[in-house]
Amino acid sequence: MDKKTMQAMQEEVDNHISQYKEGYFSPLAMLARLTEETGELAREMNHYYGEKPKKESETEKSLEQEMGDILFVLICFANSLDIDLEEAFDVVMKKFKTRDKDRWTKIDKGDDKE
User: Fold this and answer.
1) Are 63 and 48 in contact, with CB atoms under 8 Å apart?
2) Cβ burial, residue 51 (10 Å; 0-12/13-18/19+)
3) Does the pTM of the predicted model rise above 0.70?
4) CA 102: distance to chain centroid?
5) Which residues, including other chains, have CB under 8 Å from residue 71's CB and lie 6 or more apart?
């Protein structure tokens, strides 16, 4: 299966949303949706890795599904504001590779050759 680029995902989401008269939600509504989906991921994380087991009445949702929901909403949010997520990603990676390059302890390539 071919991997999708972020540009392809943004186009796919835009094609999907463009078929509806309502179009994208407002930026504030989009932020609320993103917050809601993030909360759902947090809930699932707490069930899998935390101390809060699921109730018997709760349906099983995968972390993959919840992350997919967040990605979809984030793409909608970016599209609605005409933000290219590939460019946004490049900017943040440049920041991590420059400003934050010495923030954490790097793995010494020679450490695993014993």
Assistant:
1) yes
2) exposed
3) yes
4) 25
5) 9
Q: What CA–CA distance (Å, rounded) separates 35 from 28? A: 11
AA identity, residue 32: A
User: Token pair 């540009």 is at which residue?
Assistant: 7
**Token representation of residue 91:** 């900017």
- Tokens found for residue 41: 């991921």
Q: 50-82 pLDDT, tens per residue?
A: 887 777 777 777 899 999 999 999 999 999 999
- Go through the chain and tell me how many residues it has: 114
Terminal-to-terminal C-alpha distance of the chain: 37
- Two structure tokens written together for 45: 């994380």
In this structure, are residues 1 and 40 in contact, taking their beta carbons and an 8 Å threshold? no
43 vs 6: CA distance, rounded Å: 27
